[in-house]
Amino acid sequence: MSGNIRTFSQKAFHTFEQCPLKFRYVYRDGLAWLREYHFRKNSAQWVKRGQDFHLMAERYFLRLPTAQLTPAFPEGEAWLASLKECIPLREEETYFPECQVVCEWDYPLMATFDLVRLHAGRITLYDWKVGAHPLRTRALKKSWQTVVYLVVAEREGKRYFGTGTNELSLVYWNPVFPDSPVTFTLSPSSLQRYQRRIREAASCCKEILEGGEALPNHSHCPLCPYRYCCTGEPLGEAAFEQEEVSWDAEVSWDDITEIPF
Ligand code: SF4
Q1: I want to staple 207 with a disulfide (CB 3.0 to 4.6 A). Which of 15, 64, 212, 256 is the partner?
Q2: Is the pTM of this model over 0.70?
Q3: Per-residue pLDDT tens for 216-225?
Q4: C-alpha 36 to ligand 1 mean position (Å)
């Protein structure tokens, strides 16, 4: 495969879906990633909260002391307490926090799981979505993250975690709303659907990477940080009116590890 990437992430497919031309700018032409959240209201504080929470969660599941990390925000300790209540550490379970998995398939794929939990013959993936708004099930259901994460884990569970499973789930959890997780369990029919969706998107992305045409999607322009490249105009007010980092609209801080892919 030509172009800048050889392995696809949910971020690449999400960018392609937003605008094929934006995908080309980043993944073929090599323009630097502009983090959309830099343009948002309150974004810096939510990015910091997200980073600290991920670090606290990683230490907790590695059974490292968490008391040494003083979160840079007042809710931090309460969020960690909610996490401990939601997923208490058990001797008979195995935890793999912050785990990047690459899947060699028709199209190479990668995913970065916040947590992989092996319990009672099941594999459950977790993604921490730190934000001021409750999770939205419908949007998460069709998000590229759900599609790519479940396919990658289904294909690579045995190799990376030493176990296959008949039950593979992905749980999105926001510590601000600890009682409202959103869970998707992979079924044979959803696996087929997800694989088809990936093949279709990857084939289009590959064409662009190999020099094919990348059509603009003008409906995304008002919020696109590459607007200046297309129109010579800076971002409009709409972009700055956006609220804090939004998990489903643009880059969230935990996509950062997947941005090169
Ligand atoms: S400004 Fe519009 S057409 Fe240009 S890359 Fe962004 S979304 Fe696509």
Answers
A1: 212
A2: yes
A3: 999 988 878 8
A4: 13
